[in-house]
């Protein structure tokens, strides 16, 4: 059974009139953004940014080392790296709606089962083989690819809103998880959040549509191709520009074309270094801050403050990335993050905490700029596939880095070497992003109208 409504025949006057009436209302793409934000906020907030709150409780309960606990997170990232290309292809081929339904239910049920894990192998199997599979399928790149399909001109605002919701999930969910751990214990808390995600997925999947074309609409709420400009009056009395112009200015690379550009590889190296170091720090965030001498309550408060700061930063920097140079924003942001790591290493406790949280919040804030750059440089048609291709590489770093940090902590009883390693990693990321200039679409592919219909749909 098809997961999305079939495209109406917009060539008939009746269909055109229906579509124009739809366009006159609130653009459905913003409903898609809204429910994607809800799914991303609580799904990613619980699994990506919130689950490290269970690092110490689970480690202590099961009696395992820092390296063994880190391996659980690293294996989950490795699974994401292996599965992301397949998920990207499935999203581009069949749409995001069935993937979101499958992913949300799988992740939610996996968390519920994880609450009953008593052995280390059960923890690994459930978190890596069930929860992480669900997250990869429907809670990360799939939501971003969905929003990217609905917008071109307003891509920066739409994607920034979604990425802001991801940060909001950390700010909102982490305190709730902390409260659950200290009042109920980690097991009931994990079960409740899994049940909530599974239930939330159902209305989200009901509202989500994979592409605007599935509803006879066009990106950004533009009127259908060939319709009269008068069908959508311009605001402020200005002259309306034909809808084809906004779509015609978009560059849609195939995966092969993107792989042949220098920009793709510079962005990829920037992503690998940024995500590997940042992911490792977030996984070890609570033991890292406790190592610095703060209590678990202060560590939780610090993490919440960091994610709260990332909320406006992701939106503002994301919107700025659609207007200013994303290369410069990423360059300065990653260097500020490096200063934060050096500050945590060298400064006394409270000044170190302030500098570190500020630097990490900025690194989290510019995440949206990174993916807006990918969507802006390479277009809508292969966005999910390109994210999947990048995931093959950056998840290798995300697999190794947390284990490395855990091994250093186990062998030296300190995080100093970890901070000494990741600070220059942030600097490398900054320079890679700075080198990634916008590529030009090959001349043979610069006329979408000449492509076969199936290839144009992608």
Notes on the protein architecture:
With 458 residues, the protein is mostly helical. It has 20 helices and no strands. Helix 2 runs parallel beside helix 8. The longest helix is centred in the last third of the chain and has 30 residues. It is globular. The N terminus and C terminus are likely disordered.
Structural class given helices, strands, pairing?
mainly alpha
Q: Any low-confidence stretches, pLDDT <50, length ≥5?
A: 1-23, 228-248, 446-458
Radius of gyration: 22 Å
Instruction: Please bin the fraction of helical residues.
Output: over 70%
C-alpha termini separation = 20 Å
**So what's the overall shape?**
globular
**How many helical stretches?**
20
Indicate the mean pLDDT: 80
Largest sheet: none
**Which strand-content bin applies to the residues?**
under 5%
Helix and strand pattern: HHHHHHHHHHHHHHHHHHHH
